[in-house]
Amino acid sequence: MITTKPNSKKNNNKLGILLITSILIFVLIYPETCMEGCSKGLELFVTALFPTLFPFLVLCNILIHFKGEEFYAPYLGPLICKPLKLPSSCSIVILISFLCGYPMGAKYTCSLYENKQITYDNAQRLLNIASNASPLFILGTVSLSILKNSFYGIILLLSNYLSCILMGLLLNNKNSSHKNNTVLLTNKNALPSFAKAFSMSIDDGISVTIKVGAYVIIFSVLNNLIMKSQVFNSLISSNNIIRVISSFLMSLFELTNGCMLISSINAPVYIKLGLISFAISFSGICIILQVYSIVISHGFSIKKYVIRKLFQGMLSFLITVAIYFTLFQNISSTTMAYCYKADYKAKYFIMIILTLLLLVFNVLFSIKKQNHPKKS
């Protein structure tokens, strides 16, 4: 019986070789564009990524080394993990991902799995649930720097969190149970000394941060080559539909520049917000590859992860449009101006949003539980 799988793999390999060869040729033809992209990526890494990601990684690593997830599990677990039928130790990972963004959720999902605190199936689900953009990116970079309107940031933040919660409910494993409310298996190894935990946390933090930085720099080079190419410029300067499509596809490749392109298209506000919301929830190929580099050694399905991220993006698009038409379409320009000029205290606002979402989430779960009582 003849099979086509080997031929398919050979064809994919040939396509990959041709693609890499084409990129190498472009790099040789346009060295200045390549160097400019590399400089931009390095600047982004040094000025924004490293100062924010590295300290969080070190501190969170120390927290995990001293079993912080077990400490917080009894308090956060019933509120966050019980409706999702996940072990309570997952609560700290979900909270970290909500506050710190990509790729922190993937990193600490793997940590729990390595420590045998969650099963493979729960880890695969948690990988998507704990996969979000940070509030700082949504409220700062996208809302203020790109859209120039802090009010739109609220819509995007709500959409990002709500789509994540809905994904958690839709991915709910009916066969799993929350009876083991803290951890699946408790690691009874002795706690390391603070010096050892600190040293290991720094080593791991440097490794992950440099790996993420390398992806950012490489994709900055590729992004610069695409943006400066005549083909791309002719596409975005042609008719509006092609410009919308090309800008949206660019956002699926690299998130930040894609959001900037979408913000400049000639389209209604709700379309722009919906497309940006989709891109934020999907995260982009650059971030997906960062996640893949973290989870590859554990055998998690990246195909399943990507399909679920696409579905989350669709949910986020629909939620954004619904919120816009339901709550914000008829708001007066005076109110918008006031909201734009208001000096938001971001950390308090984020905590309030998270608290309200968790309370709503828990109430919905309680109602569901009352409507479907356990059979005696």
TrEMBL record:
Entry protein name: Sporulation integral membrane protein YlbJ
Keywords of this entry: Membrane, Transmembrane, Transmembrane helix
Key word Iron-sulfur present: no
Transmembrane feature ranges: 15-32, 44-66, 86-105, 126-146, 152-171, 241-263, 269-289, 310-328, 348-367
Organism: Hathewaya proteolytica DSM 3090
